[in-house]
Structure formats: C-alpha cells, structure tokens
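To whoever is on call:

I kicked off a structure prediction for a single chain this morning and the downstream step that reads the tokens threw a length-mismatch warning. I double-checked the sequence; it's 406 residues and nothing unusual in it as far as I can see. Pasting both halves so you can look.
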Amino acid sequence: MSTISDPGAGNDGFRIGMLINDTRYRSYTFQFLALLALIFGIGYLISNLLANLAANGLNISWAFLGEPAGYDINQRPIEYTSQSTHARASIVGAINTLIVAFLACISATVLGIIAGVLRLSNNWIVSKLMSIYVEAFRNVPVLIWILIIFLAMSNAFPQPRDFRGDDPVASMWFDAVAFTNRGVYIPSFVNGEGSGIFWLVVLASIVGVFAYRRYARSLLYSTGRLLPTGWPSLAILIAPGLLAFFALGQPVSLQYPELRGFNFRDGIHLRLSLIALWFALAIYTGAFIAENVRAGIQAISKGQTEAAAALGMRPGRIMNLVILPQALRVIIPPLISQYLNITKNSSLAIAVGYMDITGTLGGITLNQTGRAIESILLLMLFYLIVSLSISAIMNVYNNSVKLKER
C-alpha cells in the first residue's frame, strides 16, 4: 500500500529542482529572485541617472549645503540669518516640521480620544455632535481646512496697532497674551542662574506623575487597592517645582510681549501659519483617531462593562481602568499610521507660508542651487528617518500594552 510522503523525504542529496518543487525551499527561492530583480532594477536606474548627468556635464555634489542661503525664514526656532548656510536653513526647516508635527500629534490624540468616547455617549445630542464633527472634518481635504483656518484667523483677529485704542476686542488677555492678525504673542521664559536645575526638577516631576499613576494602576490590578490619583498627581507636578523655584532664588522669569511702534516685541511669536497648520492637522487627524477610539471601545465585550458596574465602579473609572486599557490593543496600530500622516501632511505648510523643511530644502534651496536630486534625496531621507522613529517608538509602547500570554 503506497503512502503520501513529504517531498524530498528519503532523499539524502539536494537537487536543484527542489528549489521549485519542494515547499521547504520554494518561498526562499521566490524571495531571492525578487530581491535580485529589485537590486538590478535600482542599479539600472542609478546607472541611467549617472549616465544622463555625465552627458549633460552635471554631477552629484553636496557642496551647496555650505554656501550662503541668501533668504530669510520667518519662523526661526534657532539663530538664523540670510547669510547662514543652506545646511543651517535646512535644519531650521526640519525643526519647524518637528515642532508642528509634535504639537499636532498631541492635540489630535487628546481631541480624538475625547470625541471617540463622547460619540458613544448615551446623550443623543452629544453623540450626534461628535458624529457631525467626525464626518465633516475627515471628508474634506486637510489643505482646505488649513486655508479656512488661516483666512478666518487673519480676518477675525485685530491688527497690532488696534491695541492702542479702547476696543475690547483688541486687548491683551491678562496683559500677557495678544491675538493679532499677524499671530499670537505669548510670554517667554528668561533663564537665569540655576535655571538648569529648576528645569530638571520640573522634568523629574512630570516623570514622577507618570510613575505614580503607573504604580497606582499596578497596585489596583494586583491587590484591588485603589489609590487616589487626582490630587497626588497635581501635588507631584507642582510642589517640587515651586520648592526649587524659591530655593534657587527664582531663576526663571517671564518676558511679556509689548506693543512697540506698529507691532509687538519680546515674548514668543506664534505666527498664524503655524497655528493654522497646527489646528488643521490636529482637528482633521483627530476625526480619524476618534473613529479608531470608537472601534477600539466597541471591540471590548459589553460583559466587561457590566462586570465592572456590578462591582460598584463609577462609569468614569470603568472607562479609564477597564475599557480603555483593553481597547489600546486595537487603537494603537492605526494610531501609528495617523501620526505618520500628520508628519507627512505637514509638508502642506508652504500653502500658508510656514517654512518647514519642504519649504526650505525642497523649495527655496532647490530653486536657488538647482540641486534637485540632492535636495529631494535629503528630503526623502529626513521623512524616512522621522517616520521610522515614530513607528519604532509607538511599536515599543504597543508591545508594552498588549496582552501577555502566560
């Protein structure tokens, strides 16, 4: 009686035909062939590029990065002048990109979580309002929202010179914040002697808040003992900083914006282009995150909510301690994609004049130097590194919250 045996069973030798016929080697064979095809394809494109450049008397050179840029940048997080190099201008643009991406990621996450939870509210009005927000913002291109917010703010806010009159609209909030059609002016920190120690204490306080809340949650899960988290977190956040502030002789002070001539001076100037880009990315992406949150919550069995309610837990604690921790396993993977979308969509900043890396390296620098290939390669490398970094960090967090099998 014959039996069906595994291909290659009973054969001690290796034959070339096994690379195709044997299931143990077939997948590796196709992957190797695909890799060879990819290598040859990329090699052909590079050789064709070099041949065309040589035929036109051109070459690939990075010397342009050391030449003076010759243009100004309106939003400068670090020192920069028109005589700085193109490399310096690219760094300024890269920092501007990271600033707006970070602000938008944080804001979109907060807004998305709130909207996603409220969309499942038992209150009909609240639920429908969140549904309208989600459907309205995620079905309109983000570029449209950037332009709408920018034009609305530039037309609604008063001019700086109007702050000299008695117009209640053109007045500073708490004598510290001014909303104008040129941007928002807020106080800036002035660091004195001992400020470094103070900021280290503040940073340690923030870390301490997360550490305490993590300890309180682990204690609850292991022993059932519920520690308060509200006022202890607030005390950990504020008390050490206040003690360090007065113990070090008030090393940090505030510099308030002042109207001088026809514009405000001092303080921090948040341009309308930054605010419009920030708000548009946050509100637009927040609508997608809200759907991710809603899907994650609905993926949790209703029995979890009913069991927690039977133990006498309040609805707020049920959501924070039972539902959301389990829903994170569903929420985080698509959330990574939304963070990547925010970073890449920030390249639309040029539409409102915000000088990110696409506007500096991929815009003015490229046009002035004519080094299109080099500029585009550097631009691609920047977005690739940032995207891979975000994915790596979020994947580490995703692994920390997923279910641990025993």
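Update from on-call: the warning came from a stale cache, not from the record. Cleared it. Sanity check on the structure: Confidence is low (pLDDT under 50) at residues 1-10.
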